[in-house]
Amino acid sequence: MEKKIKVLIAKPGLDGHDRGAKVVAMALRDAGMEVIYTGLRQSPEDIAKAALQEDVDIVGLSILSGAHMKLCPRVLDFMKQYGIADKPIFVGGIIPEDDAEELKRIGIFEVFGPGTSLEKIIDSIRKRVK
Question: B12-binding domain: from which residue to which, for each copy (predicted)?
Answer without folding.
Answer: 4-130
